[in-house]
Amino acid sequence: MTTSATLQEKLSRLGIRNELDLVLHLPLRYEDETHLFPIRDAPHGPMVQVEGDIVHTEVVMRPKRQLVCRIEDSSGDLTIRFLNFYASQIKILATEKRVRLLGEIRTGFYGAEMVHPKYRIVRIGEALAEAMTPVYPVTAGLTQRTLSKLIRQALTELQQQLLSETLPDSIRQHYDLAGFHQSLLYLHFPPPEAPVKALQARTHPAWRRIKFDELLAQQLSMRFHYRQRRKRTAPALSQRQCLVRQFLSRLDFTLTDAQQKACDEIARDLALPYPMQRLLQGDVGSGKTIVAAIAALQAIENGYQAAFMAPTEILAEQHQQKLSCWFEPLGIRVAWLTGSQRKKNKKAVLTEVALGAAPLVIGTHAIFQDQVIFQRLGLIIIDEQHRFGVQQRLALRMKATQSDQVPHQLMMTATPIPRTLSMSYFADLDISVIDKPPPGRSPVITKLIASNRRNEVIERIQHACRLGKQVYWVCPLIEESEVLQLQAAQETYETLRTVFPELSLGLLHGRLPPPEKNDVMTRFKQGEIQLLVATTVIEVGVDVPNASLMVIENAEHMGLSQLHQLRGRVGRGTEASICILMFQQPLSEVSRKRLKIIFEHTDGFEIARQDLLLRGPGELLGARQSGIPMLRFADLERDVDLIAAAQMVANELLDAYPEMAQQHMARWLGDKSEFLRV
Ligand code: ADP
Ligand code: MG
């Protein structure tokens, strides 16, 4: 690019590094400068263009220093106001005669007015724009005009080959897709007759082509890497089902149909000689752990080891307890690895793992540290996968490779993934869903209580404890600082101790040394602690069926999926459970919406869908987000038909037109397509 260093720097702030990026930098919206409204007829609200003579200009001081200017045409008059302005602007508006304005008219202090309109000095009868004017995302010091010029230049200078068609004619015809190059030209330089609405709403065929291409690139890269990984070999773990049957016969419940279906899908994958890449999703409490346990048994009965990784020590500890309980009667030793373990103890475990004496290893991130060497790792289970970065997953997968084999991988998440999201951002995985909870659960009743009605909450707690139930009190979330968070938890604990002198309380937070953490959890599980004051560390996985009341303080600060996860800690027994969301008034608009959603819905899928609508895919992607190219043009909700089409075309291209597929990925993803390597 022949641009000065500073221009280059500004462009790179917009993510533009080369000509191709420039031509893919598409308008945010369009302005209609093709039409002039008589002032009196101009609609209030939308962007309109009007023109008139300047009749008065002055700087007024009240209520605030501002430049006020009146213009009129033959139909009426209009005030324009600038709160920020240069001296040069005063001069121009005071001396020139006629001005053309683009802005939104509202009724204000001075009657009909425009605040900060786009304006241009014109002569009478000056020509109107012939076509819609694109408005690009810009950055400080870079004008629309400069950007537009650069884009035009790039479009004409770019080698034809760089903009060539990446879809075979047959596919374009079948899916009724406009040409790529033509679509770009159309969106950057819409012709005079272009339909305004379709351009603005991005439903025009030119937009559809661009959105399709973007989605196709995403599908291609995900499916490409999925296929690459499938080319590697993994141990074929045959479905002997001997241990599994033994295990199931000892359980005091039977698997639900949904669990059985997930188990079957996993068992089939494990029996294949290439690595499983499966995500098991199921709402909180849907019973994923046992499905994972059954998968582990299949590895173990084939003479392989399984590793089970959880994101927090508390969760890992719970899995350890549960799985030991399940497995030790079968003569299967469960080893335990965490960061906080004593050196000597750890060394012994490492030896067991290396010798294969521990068929199942449970732990935190510590599992994939360098010293951990498995004798024969056949399966990796990752709980709450959205909390782990891609890199961490890769590290584990890599280090497990001794021979040319890689282990199978089962990831689990309690964050339900809306369909459009799993079709797009999760297209590199096979997905199993547990869509129904085990029977006998009673739904959780959610109550919203303003913090000034704290007394009511206190009474409820006393009442619940008198009935022998247990209670969680979740402390406010303070995102900026862990220290403050800790302090708040400590203070809440002290306060509640004076409020409830008759109850036994416990405090649980992330910074507690692990032995103490375990101690608190054990005492809570055994019913010794009646009221557990906790930070959001209990969000994942904690499972104490007798706890049937939860109070969440300052719930308005928490995200939807977090609230849903927290609430999932109660309602695990047969007792009717209550979750009280306390909030501080006044509520912001977003907080009000969030609380309304969590109040009205208990189904995690619906909550996730609403979250997606409210905030986009970030939260639901978790750690994935950092590794995956985000969509710029396509919209998961509105363009679901395009996602489905892109999915089919991706497979077709990879099978029959691999070169076009590569070219397409290079165009849209550049080096970002590396994110899923291995
Ligand atoms: P999650 O999917 O949130 O990880 P868990 O695996 O912790 O859920 O299961 C929640 C609770 O449900 C556990 O106490 C578990 O033992 C129990 N559970 C799992 N499957 C069943 C079933 N089929 N019938 C009855 N209870 C079950
Ligand atoms: Mg779980």
Folded structure, characterized:
This protein has 678 residues and is α/β, with parallel strands linked by helices. It has four domains: 5-29 and 134-201, no CATH class; 35-128, Nucleic acid-binding proteins (OB fold (Dihydrolipoamide Acetyltransferase, E2P)), CATH 2.40.50; 242-434, 3-Layer(aba) Sandwich (Rossmann fold), CATH 3.40.50.300; 444-601, Rossmann fold. The chain contains 24 helices and 21 strands. Strands 11-12-10-13-14-9-15 form a seven-stranded parallel sheet, with helices on both faces. Strands 16-21-20-17-19-18 form a six-stranded parallel sheet, sandwiched between helices. It has a five-stranded mixed β-barrel with strand order 2-3-4-6-5. Helix 10 (257-270) runs parallel beside helix 11 (288-301) and helix 20 (589-600) packs antiparallel against helix 21. Bound molecules: adenosine-5'-diphosphate and magnesium ion. Adenosine-5'-diphosphate is lined by residues 253, 255-256, 259, 282, 284-290, 414, 438, 543, 572. Adenosine-5'-diphosphate binds next to helix 11.
Q: How many beta-strand elements?
A: 21
What's the CATH architecture name of the largest domain? 3-Layer(aba) Sandwich
Distance between the termini: 33 Å
Q: What is the name of the CATH class of the largest domain?
A: Alpha Beta
How confident overall, as mean pLDDT?
A: 88
Give the fraction of residues assigned to helices: 40-55%
Catalogue the unreliable spans.
none
Proportion of β residues? 15-25%
The hetero molecules present are: adenosine-5'-diphosphate, magnesium ion
Supply Rg.
31 Å
Q: How many helical stretches?
A: 24
